[in-house]
Amino acid sequence: MKRLKKIFIYLIIFLFVLLVSGYGLLQLSESRTFQFFGGLVDHVTTQEKVVALTFDDAPTEYTNVVLKTLADKKIKATFFAIGSNLEQHPQIGKDIIKQGHEMGNHSYSHERFLLKSQSSIDEEIQKTNKLIRNTGYKGEIFFRPPNGKKLIGLPWYLHNHKIKTIMWDIEPDTYAGAESESGGSNSDFIVEYTLQHTQPGSIILLHPFCKSCSGDRDALSKIIDGLQKKGYQFVTVSELLTYEQK
Fold first, then answer.
1. Which residues contact 162 (CB under 8 A, 6 or more apart)?
2. Ranges of each domain in the chain
3. Does the domain made of 36-241 have the CATH classification 3.20.20.370?
């Protein structure tokens, strides 16, 4: 009886450790500021009032709305593209580059990378890199993990291929509890949150390209105006990296 009790206690301890370690790994996989291998950037340390606007999941039929806003405001941004979206909208991808914006890799399928093999990771990234080059983009191609999730395999691959991981420190969508009638996040909250939390060197993440993302599209112009009134200058991610204080 005592032996069974000990086994039961050990089993409980084992399950507890497994649960805690699993939770810890989950937290690490979702970290915006840490990964096991390679270079990760979530913001730049600088006293200069410069920030980078970044957009995930480009391109879609809603991209032209964003491009018009950026053109009207004379702002350059960084678009993280999904390879399958580039296949469906090749001309929009080319329009992004023609207007002087930067394009990063957001994977081909937008699936999580946590359990993918190195060959699968390679196919996802290289296939999308080729599609990005087909738009005419000549600059360095950064990578942003789908849903921001990475653990060991993906960082190891990026490290070996000298690809920078670009995360973010401002993502209003995460905290936007209110939903607009169209299904997108409330634009007033998105604007207020971004203006309140942005600091010199911030990387701002918006998701303006889905049908229900009208909140992000509506907020974009107000975010630009509000931050410019505070003295901020908008740059691409590659430009922002040059401001890093050593």
1. none
2. 36-241
3. yes
